[in-house]
Amino acid sequence: MNRTATFVALAFLVPALAEASCGSAFCTVNTNWTAESASVDAGSSFDLRYEFIKQDQPRTGTDDIAVGQVPRHHDEVRTYNRNLVASFSHTFSSGWGLSIVAPLTDRDHLHIHNHHGAQLSEQWQYQELGDVRVTGRYQLPLAGDAANPSTAGLLFGVKLPTGSTSVTNAAGSVAERSLQPGTGTTDLLLGAYYHQRLPASDISWFAQAQVQQAIAEHAGYKPGGQLTADLGVRKNLTEKLGGLVQLNMVVKRRDSGAEAEPEDSGSRSLFVSPGLAYTLSDNMQVYGFIQQPLYQNVNGVQLTARRAATIGISGRF
């Protein structure tokens, strides 16, 4: 397999919030897996990706509903999420590695505030740094068939409370906590992955799972713990073009705390994510994915997206 096929992307375990009551979200596509490949060569990598998630479909359980069909104090209308996620990763010769991920969020949210019989439109628009993640890993080649090399690894780290939790709109109203660019909490991350290359068929595949759990609440808010699991395949279509497809599962528990909305948080989702990657040089690629929901089951009423898209560039130096 072409050496550059190991570089689809490097964004390491970006936040994977599929839904929230107000619709704050990051794409759940795993753009990391071919970088965590059967190779354990020392070196540094980068990834820069742009995501667009248009959440304008209210949902309860597995059913789409109209805005306000299920009465709430706030009837959520839509949220546009435009995320720019930058990542840097370094692998040491010992097999240990370190990754840093910093998201910049451009978010536009609209809901209707039902106040004493009046319906008041409220909107928030902001561009803010989100919560940064620092993650370590340990990977090693597995003994077995030398013609089909494989790698397994452990992931561990923290999500830091770098994002603001006090963004306001033009009227001075503070946005709901699930809409804010940061949760205010420090979260622990733990996961594992497995990757295998099948050079004879120009195919590689991976599986990865991760859990995330906040240590304690912050200012009356604690995001629900979540589990993500990914399964993906890559096939070289030409010398420079690769075809990609993933299944992405996200299970999120309800938020808690005085400032949370537990009745309208928590979900279970499954997505399919086809994509392409194109080699620009020996050490650089561009890629793109479209993510389509296969199954979405949300607690209460939440905004969901019919699809999401991400494009990016990654490389090694």
Automatic annotation (TrEMBL):
Swiss-Prot/TrEMBL keywords: Signal
Cross-referenced InterPro entries: FApF (IPR025737)
Signal peptide: 1-20
Domain of life: Bacteria
Listed SUPFAM superfamilies: Porins (SSF56935)
Name assigned to this protein: Transporter
Upper taxonomic lineage: Bacteria, Pseudomonadati, Pseudomonadota, Betaproteobacteria, Burkholderiales
